[in-house]
Structures are given as structure tokens and as C-alpha cells.
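Exercise 7. Given the encoded structure of a 603-residue chain, write a plausible sequence.
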């Protein structure tokens, strides 16, 4: 099911001193270019809005009252100009007016029509056309987007407060998280037409046009009585069997949806063409910037001052990578916890996420560790191996090891309470050998149980709180406790996790020549089992198959390979065991194997 719309696009010029508008530019902008307004709604609204008629008229010169004047006046002037030119507007259920230049006039939607100044940007055009198509504003973070009182003082309102929705352009416009349309689609005379918006939030689209997502199978519904984990794909995936929205229905939800929770995943990928509209949601590395990809949460609440007046409200997010894997959402029906499974928390740009929505979440902290060693040989000597003196001398090595261990914290049920919009409201602290780690990098003196004082080098990521520890080999063996402490920003919900940093910094052992010799010896003492020899070559059925010859060939090949590797690593040892190799070559001749086989049968 879709909505059929019939729109008339009228182009007018309200200032005769400016160049005549190019109707073809507007036609490309609205319909024909690969990143047109029509294409945006097709890709962002699952092709729900069908333009049964989309016709273009103009341009016409019109006279408007002095700016600012209400948008309905501009719309009416454009319709009258078209009617005066013989255009019948009765078949259309909406009108979109592009005014050149239109500067200074009250712009936006008015009912099923819109007045758009040509000096505005593509984001504004899509937002207002969204109103024409029946979409209303989303809410959340307090912004000045609705401050229309000219008193030189900022006034803040929650409308336009969703940084992840077309219908809230006030929250993301200033920080410029938008994508940019291809240069070929943007006329040189109108560079502002290049700035494009993110997707329509799945939450808003489902709340106001549910069939757009339900008919395509993009929604998973979860009731409060269920405890399920759902795989969620990035908005714009547009693939059967890959949901893009989780809808949590709490007990007591009414017909208007009060208390409902929406969960979606916003992350663009090059292989996912429709996700291109979210390309600007990437990390800008700007402190406090809200343009971050991740799991986005909305809920349904009443618009402030309006009862009932259910609206879509931005409630929080989980941005990757982060130690904080859940967010607590305050709803009219109580608090709800939305989280991702732990394997995704510290992942950068996961291809999908697994989310869980539930009433309660017990505080916990898990630390994942991974180590990487760099070992260097600092001294060698030649000595015989006990019991193998006949083979000659082998290398005895003294080695030093530098170990880098990474500690990755993952928390559940701590902090993250909406409507906080920080990257994370979880505070993770680290203690190495009882000493707290500060700063992005530091040297930590640690006293060991045996009284030695060693120095460990640490790094601590400011956002992910991932800790790395590196030793100095000269300090010798080290084994110290590593403790992580996590809590909410106000100190509540404190939990701990204990790990350790352990390294044998100085070790000794036999070198690679001993390993190669033992491989050579193993292949002599462990020949190829006869049952591994395959059947005759089916490509040559007349060829006589000799199992003993095949055994000899494979076994001799294995031993020769090992001997060649031994000779490469230690020519002296290879020379010492040359007679052993010669015996193997003699024993593995097919004639010799047959003779031994006959002797065994006779015996």
C-alpha cells in the first residue's frame, strides 16, 4: 500500500532585477537528478509516497508584499499566476512553490502546499515537502529552532530536537552532519542546493506512516512480556528479511502509543546505496557534536503543553565504539533499558547490531583482554642437547619479550539515562598495581610483591576507556593486578572487574635449528601410513598401481623437505646427520621396501 500524491510545482520570480529562473534546474532538483527530492523520499520512505502526477509550471513573475509576509500569500500569488497562464490546478492535491530569490519571506509548508525560497538548501526543501506529504515534527533536545521571538535572547524549545530526523533539522543543521549531493546534481548558480539531510527517522516514519515500513517487513514488534534479542540492520538496507526498526510495546500502552519505544540503527556503508543520506552522521571529532552513528532510541510522549498530543521524542543513543552498551529511556509508563549485546559495544561501524529492550538491567562490568608479544633474541650460544650429542651443537637463546595487553571495558545497566546526549554517561577508571591511570599516556611505577619497583607504560582512550599496558623487558617478570571500576557520572551503580598484567620478560630456550631437527627426526620416525595412499589414477586405468612405490615416494619427499629446511637453518647440524639422511634415501627405495615386506611375510 502506498500514498498517491499529485503535486503541482510552480516556479516564480519575485524580483525582476534577478536572472530568470531556469525551470530545468528545478525539474532536476525535484524529480530527475539521481539525488532529487523525489529520490530522497523514495529511498528514505521505502517508496511509500507515489507521485501519480508531478508537473512543473513557470516561471512567472509575481509581485509579493514586502518581506516578511506569510507563506500563504506567496503560495496564493503563485497559484494565481499559473491560473492566469491557463493552468488548471484542480487535479492537484498540493502545490510546491519555488520563489526566486524569495529572500526574507516567511517560508515553509502551509497545509498541503509549501513556499520555498530558492536561496534555501536541499535539507530545507525536503523538510517542507515532508510536511506536504503529511509528516510532522519530531522532538527531543531543547534548541532555538522555534525561537521566532525577535527579542535578541535565545529561547529553547524541544521541537526540532531530534538530531537523527529530517523533520528536526534544527538540531543537526548547525553542526553540519548532513551529506552532500553529487556536484553534478547541484547547479553552479545554486550551491546551497548541495547540503542534504539524513534519513527520516524510522521512529517518526512508523508513528506517522506505519504502512511505509510494515508493508515492507522492516519492523519487529516486541511486547513487554517478551525477552528477546533482535538483529537490527542500518536504516536504508531495504532488504527483505532484514529489519530496520524494533518497536517495544510496554504494558499499558494506549491507542496513541504513549510509552512506546522505537530502536533503529544508523550507519552508512558504501555497499548500501540507500544509506548514503546518513553519510554525514559520521564522527566529526568535534567536542560535543551530536552527529554520531549508532543505535538511536525514541519514545512516544505528549507534546509539552498539549494533552493528548503524542509526538516522537528523541530519547538517547548508543554510539560506537563505547564501553556503555545500553541507555535507560524515561517514558510515560516508566523506565526502559535499551542495549546492544556486549560484542558490539567496542566495535567500530558494525554491519548490524543485536538489540534487547527490557524493563530492568542489572549493573555489570566485563573486561576483555588481548595480548601481543614482540620477542627479540639478545644473546646466543652453541651447546649440545642432552641425549642428542651425536647430532652436534644447537643454538641456545636468551630472549626478551615486550608484551602489549589491551583491556576493553563493556558495561551494562550503568548510566546512560535519557535525555542525556553525551557520548557516554558511564565513568570507567583503571588501577594498575593499586595506582590509578590518568591521561592519554603515562608511566606507572608499580611495586611488586618481591619488593622490586617496575615501570609500566600505559595509554587510555578518552572515549572508549580502552587501556593498554606495555612492559620494559629489563624489569624482568611481572605479574600485577589490573582493576576496572565503572559507575554512572554521579557515582551510583559502582561495579568492579579484576584482571591482571603478566609477562615473562626474560626467557631462554633452544633455537629454531633444534625445532627443525626435531621435525626432521619426527618425519623419519613417523612415516606416511599405508592406508593414506589413494587408489589408482582414474585417468589412466591401464597404469599399474604400486602402493609400496607410492609410500616410498611420499615418505622420501617428506624427509627431504625437512632435511632441506634443517640445512637452511643450521648447515652444521645438517652435515652431522647427513648419514641419517643417506640411510633414509637407501631404505625408501621401492626395491628395498618390497624385500623387507617379503622378509616379514616369510618370517
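Solution.
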Amino acid at each position: 500500500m502506498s500514498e498517491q500524491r499529485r503535486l503541482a510545482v510552480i516556479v516564480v520570480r519575485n524580483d525582476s532585477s534577478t536572472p530568470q529562473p531556469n525551470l530545468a534546474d528545478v525539474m532536476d532538483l525535484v524529480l530527475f537528478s539521481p539525488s532529487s527530492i523525489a529520490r530522497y523520499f523514495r529511498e528514505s520512505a521505502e517508496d511509500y509516497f507515489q507521485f501519480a502526477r508531478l508537473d512543473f509550471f513557470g516561471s512567472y513573475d509575481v509581485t509579493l508584499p514586502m518581506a516578511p509576509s506569510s507563506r500563504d500569500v506567496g503560495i496564493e500569488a503563485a497559484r494565481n499566476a499559473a491560473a492566469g497562464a491557463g493552468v488548471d490546478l484542480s487535479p492537484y492535491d498540493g502545490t510546491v512553490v519555488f520563489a526566486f530569490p524569495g529572500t526574507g519571506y516567511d517560508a515553509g509548508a502551509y497545509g498541503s502546499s509549501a513556499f520555498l525560497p530558492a536561496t534555501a538548501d536541499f535539507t530545507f526543501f525536503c523538510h517542507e515537502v515532508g510536511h506536504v506529504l503529511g509528516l510532522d515534527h519530531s522532538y527531543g533536545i531543547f534548541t532555538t529552532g522555534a525561537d521566532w521571538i525577535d527579542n535578541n535572547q535565545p529561547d529553547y524549545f524541544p521541537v526540532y530536537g531530534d538530531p537523527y530526523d529530517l523533520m528536526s533539522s534544527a538540531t543537526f543543521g548547525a553542526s553540519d552532519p548532513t551529506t552532500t549531493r553529487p556536484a553534478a546534481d547541484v547547479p553552479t548558480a545554486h550551491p546551497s542546493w548541495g547540503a542534504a539531510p539524513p534519513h527520516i527517522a524510522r521512529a517518526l516514519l512508523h508513528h506517522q506512516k506505519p504502512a511505509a515500513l510494515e508493508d515492507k517487513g522492516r519492523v519487529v514488534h516486541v511486547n513487554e512480556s517478551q525477552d528477546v534479542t533482535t538483529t537490527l540492520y542500518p536504516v536504508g538496507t531495504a532488504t527483505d528479511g532484514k529489519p530496520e526498526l524494533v518497536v517495544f510495546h510496554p504494558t499499558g500502552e494506549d491507542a496513541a502509543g504513549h510509552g512506546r519505544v522505537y530502536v533503529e540503527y544508523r550507519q552508512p556503508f558504501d555497499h548500501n546505496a540507500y544509506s548514503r543520506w546518513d553519510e554525514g552522521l559520521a564522527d566529526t571529532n568535534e567536542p560535543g557534536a551530536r552527529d554520531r552513528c549508532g543505535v538511536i532510541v525514541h519514545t512516544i510522549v505528549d507534546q509539552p503543553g498539549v494533552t493528548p498530543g503524542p509526538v516522537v521524542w528523541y530519547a538517547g543513543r548508543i554510539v560506537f565504539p563505547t564501553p556503555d552498551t545500553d541507555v535507560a529511556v524515561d517514558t510515560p509508563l516508566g523506565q526502559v533499558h535499551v542495549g546492544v549485546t556486549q560484542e558490539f559495544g567496542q566495535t567500530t561501524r558494525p554491519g548490524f547490531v543485536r538489540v534487547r529492550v527490557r524493563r530492568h538491567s542489572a549493573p555489570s562490568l566485563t573486561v576483555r583482554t588481548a595480548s601481543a608479544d614482540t620477542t627479540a633474541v639478545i644473546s646466543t650460544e652453541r651447546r649440545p642437547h642432552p641425549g642428542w650429542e651425536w647430532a652436534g651443537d644447537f643454538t641456545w637463546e636468551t630472549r626478551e619479550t615486550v608484551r602489549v595487553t589491551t583491556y576493553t571495558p563493556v558495561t551494562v545497566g550503568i548510566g546512560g539515562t535519557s535525555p542525556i546526549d553525551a557520548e557516554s554517561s558511564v565513568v570507567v577508571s583503571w588501577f594498575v598495581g593499586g595506582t590509578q591511570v590518568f591521561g592519554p599516556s603515562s608511566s606507572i611505577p608499580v611495586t611488586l610483591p618481591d619488593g622490586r619497583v617496575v615501570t609500566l607504560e600505559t595509554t587510555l582512550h578518552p572515549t572508549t576507556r580502552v587501556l593498554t599496558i606495555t612492559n620494559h623487558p629489563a624489569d624482568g617478570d611481572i605479574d600485577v593486578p589490573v582493576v576496572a571500576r565503572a559507575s554512572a557520572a554521579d557515582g551510583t551503580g559502582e561495579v568492579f572487574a579484576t584482571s591482571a598484567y603478566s609477562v615473562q620478560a626474560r626467557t631462554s630456550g633452544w633455537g629454531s635449528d633444534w625445532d627443525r631437527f626435531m621435525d626432521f627426526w619426527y618425519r623419519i620416525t613417523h612415516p606416511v601410513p599405508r592406508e593414506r595412499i589413494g587408489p589408482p589414477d582414474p585417468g589412466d586405468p591401464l597404469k599399474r598401481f604400486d602402493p609400496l612405490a607410492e609410500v616410498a615416494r611420499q615418505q622420501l619427499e617428506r624427509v627431504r623437505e625437512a632435511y632441506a629446511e634443517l640445512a637452511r637453518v643450521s648447515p652444521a647440524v645438517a652435515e652431522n646427520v647427513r648419514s641419517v639422511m643417506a640411510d633414509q634415501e637407501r631404505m625408501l627405495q621401492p626395491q628395498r621396501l618390497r624385500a623387507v615386506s617379503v622378509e616379514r611375510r616369510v618370517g
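Remark. Residues 596-603 have pLDDT under 50 and may be disordered. Students should compare their own answers with the one above.
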